[in-house]
Amino acid sequence: MLKRTATAFLHKRCLPLIHNDGTQRLGFCTYGPDASQPFDATQDVPVTFDEENLKFIVCPVTKKPLRYDSARNVLVSDELGKAFPIQNVAMAIHVIVATVFVFLGCCTNVFFLELLVKEHPGCTNLITFSQFLFIAIEGFVFTTKFGKRRPVIPLKHYVTLVVMCFLVSVSNNHALSYDISMPLHMIFKSGSLIANMVLAIILQKRRYPLFKHLAVYMITLGIVICTIASVGGGKAKEAGTAKTEDGSVYTKCVGIGLLLFALLLSARMGIYQETLYARHGKHPRESLFYVHALPLPGFLLLVPNIYSHAVLFNQSAPLPFPMLEIIPRSWIYLLLNVITQYVCIRSVYVLTTECSSLTVTLVITLRKFVSLLLSIYYFQNPFTLIHWFGTVLVFAGTLLFTGVLSPAPTVTESRLKTQ
């Protein structure tokens, strides 16, 4: 017998949605054609949710009661042979808000990053240090309460995450020293969705339906096409003056190997985070703090580079705005970059606790695509038919992945039983 203390609004055309905010509460939201109706918490009434109450919960298609499957935590329609997953209402709201802030924070962050790098090439160490320091200080004050709150997840797991993150960053940056062009660099990063899905199938024994495979391939192909089209125009314009690249095959293979290693390790890092949260619970702010605080001593090796660019920042011209004439504009750009980076990375960490690593990778990949389009618009680069073709692939793949274009609502992911 299933017993829950719940808050629910029972409706004959409704399916259950579990709130998970420390207490188990049960809310209902219309499923099917009326799924767009908002959840109305004001109409909730206290009830006890057990198997007897399932007679109130009927299939929106057959109008017959659904059977609760406790092993899979789903409601089953025996007539249709389909299962309706019990979803998390609070999670859905957090996911929507976090996704919006990923796009807003990350895209504006890239904008200010481009402004800084254009004016001060090579200042990325100063930018990275500022971002890490800001997040570490914020986490030390508000997350650990000045070090009084001990971590829920053991530090050894955070050390593993830091090592993974460090190796990914070093490999991606070092690959450029092995005759790897920026177009190839960007194209490799566009393969993160496929890498994540492949590792999830191998390591987590997951199965994905055919339409999700097709959606991932469409999104990745669309981003690759847009990337090639974007950099292709610039290459053509500079063909007369650019130097020809004669790197050896061996050198290129080393660079490609580094990119491939970074791609797979980045996907593995996402799956590792997902596993940690499943084992120790969801603690996005704690993870955000420790992953950014633990690497800070490593920046001591970069002090000369950081100091030299700080001097250059002091020499930059101020912005022509009242009360800002005395502040060098590079420091203002850096402040805005740090704030938007905090919004971006915190939203990403919320997604990692509420979604699968593949879904997080999808959001980040689409964010990269939006950044590419904004960059094309901001720098007034031509948007050709090839760009439009890639755009159609990306958005069609997104609709397919999210189930908008899928034939019917089903359980889209299942985990194989392991011995």
UniProtKB/TrEMBL annotation:
Any single Gene Ontology cellular-component annotation: Golgi membrane
Keywords, ordered alphabetically: Membrane, Sugar transport, Transmembrane, Transmembrane helix, Transport
SUPFAM superfamilies linked: Trm112p-like (SSF158997)
Residues that span the membrane, as ranges: 89-113, 125-146, 158-176, 182-202, 214-234, 249-267, 288-310, 330-351, 358-379, 385-405
Compartment(s): Endomembrane system
GO MF terms held by the record: UDP-N-acetylglucosamine transmembrane transporter activity; UDP-xylose transmembrane transporter activity
Membrane-related topology note: Multi-pass membrane protein
Matches recorded under InterPro entries: SCL35B1-4/HUT1, Trm112-like
Pfam short name (any one): UAA
Protein family membership: Belongs to the nucleotide-sugar transporter family. SLC35B subfamily.
Protein name: UDP-xylose and UDP-N-acetylglucosamine transporter
Gene source species: Rhipicephalus sanguineus (Brown dog tick)
